Amino acid sequence: MVDFVHLSAAGVSFVLDFRGPSLPAVVHWGEALGDLGPEELAEVALATAPQPIGFSADSPVRVSILPEQSAGWLGHPGLAGHRDGTAWSSAFSVSGVDRSAHGVQVRGFDETAGLELVIEIELHPAGVLRARARLTSTAPGTYWLDHLTLFLPVPPETTELLDFTGHHLRERSPQRTAFTHGLRVRENRTGRTGYDSAYLLCAGTAGFGNRHGRVWGVHTAFSGNARTVAERNYHGHSALGGGELLLPGEIGLREGESYTSPWVFAAFGAHGLDSLSERFHSYLRSRPGHPTRPRPVVVNTWEAVYFDHDLGRLTELAKAAATVGAERFVLDDGWFGSRRDDTSGLGDWTVSPDVWPDGLDPLISVVRDLGMEFGLWVEPEMINPDSDLARAHPDWIMAAGDRLPPTARSQQVLDLHNPSAYAYVRDRLDTLLSEHAIGYLKWDHNRDLVDAGHPASGRAGVHDQTHAVYRLLDELRARHPGVEIESCSSGGGRVDLEILARTDRIWASDCIDAHERVAIQRWTSLLVPLELIGSHVGAPRSHTTQRELPLDTRAGTAIWGHLGIEWDLTVATPGELSRLGEWVALYKEVRSLLHTGTLVHGDVADPAYSLTGVVSASDALFAVTATATSEAYPPGAVALPGLDPDRLYHVRPQPPGDVPDGNAAAWGAALPWCTSAGVRLSGRALGTAGLRLPVLYPDRVLLIRATPAGGTT
Q1: Where, if anywhere, are coiled coils annotated (predicted)?
Q2: 606: alpha, beta or left? (left if phi > 0; alpha if psi -120 to 50)
């Protein structure tokens, strides 16, 4: 048996100490320790071992990645469950350790409780750590699992917590709290990732920001009910953790049965939140299934026509979309069954003869002849009580026994754990994809799972439902590998790394008001790279906020993601169509930069302004955005982060986002550097002295391009 395992990658070290009788303790997770041998690792463990005083046992308590009370730990347990009241406290011994190129697998057993445990820990080359556990019952009877939560320690210097809350149309809203003694638990019981999920729970040094401070973060990768926790106690132990939130009776393990927890992803950033993001983005971009072809410009019909489907009207919309450079045309809700509004038809996945007497092929032909892909909206997990499917199979609706849940958006949830319901949905979607030239599915999920049980047994079913959705996505993707899928859930209600293992982008929010989207997209991109975040240009007046914004603001915000358009272009003026075409052309020019480069954010002192950029070795694009009026007139300077300090750059405004107010002379005085000639400065000067911010009207965007000027300094 080994004494230590030291995983190291990309400036990160993770050290496990196996010398105790129980599960291994985490000695270190953070900055790389260097190439240390067993003797030196033992010295690190000795140097950081706590004084044996104040504990609940004579010896200092070894806190493992799955903390146990049997080891003297009286904080939040890693495992909770029982066998009819016994085996409630586990005491695992390590039975084996298997090393791999990037990780370690730890096997443990508790003969008394009749449990076996396998913990997998991997450190990706980008420095992202992930861990999960598999629990197996080895004794007669049933082991009822309450929760399995994995924890990662963080140092005492982490005095602040950052996590997220939100609601429909305002997803992933940040909130900071002090990291004090006690347990902070963020629970999601909505049956999907949730608008107000913790998302990425970060612990950092005081005042950590985009580019400064040391920060550790964890993400619970699960699309159902989940828990993310932070705990600090007076013994000097602090940790972040996560796992699935199990409803009563969801997991009962009979002899030989196993439960596998979700992956908990974690990363350390030595230089603020941007360094944390860079690790997650690098990890996601390295996945074999990560989208690699240029992200096509999408036109979605929802806010253009809603349920008013008409071949002639949609043909004109498709023609306008092609004119501005769109590459994908998505027909949203209303094409099937009795679906003329949102009160009926869900579950009846056949093309409506009332609206489409000749089927979808005439529209698909128009779209493809115009050089665009065709996409289709579906919501396979839901059912309207007013549908042929519900009338034929009321027993397929999730319910807590004989009691139906309250409807939401006139919907109930289809029990996909039921093999017949699962086969029905799979076969209907398979038929649609087989019979039509569909290259894209907008996969929606428009209600929380309330009282979501299996009607035949009455048992809680969120766990089963979540895994059934994963199987359904996996099976459809295997049958139709060329089809891309978007995860939409009333907007941004299902955004996590497990759903993203099966989809090609997420819909960040149903709110496409550019003012609101600045924050939504910034914080969504803390975990998810830009190419996976759907970001659309809306109508001049936002459908969700009634705020009116100029086209340049709407488009200048939307290019910072996977660009789309959700606007009835048939009523746009020729000038608007021409200007929109310029923005689409810019997106096509820079999307390879935006979707492969390093995302950076300035630490701007002025709260009225923000600075976002993407930097590569050969190019950089920045956006200065004003969301309010500044206290300063004119405002101060801001550093351009991420540039090579030893290279010379040509920095200038980037058309069409170079005239943010629609009038170059709006203020009667030009900002000296803000001309086509721009300035030529080193990355070091730009990253320290920076650029003077312009006076902007609120809700305006100025784009800045920085390209190497052919020299070094």
Answers
A1: none
A2: beta
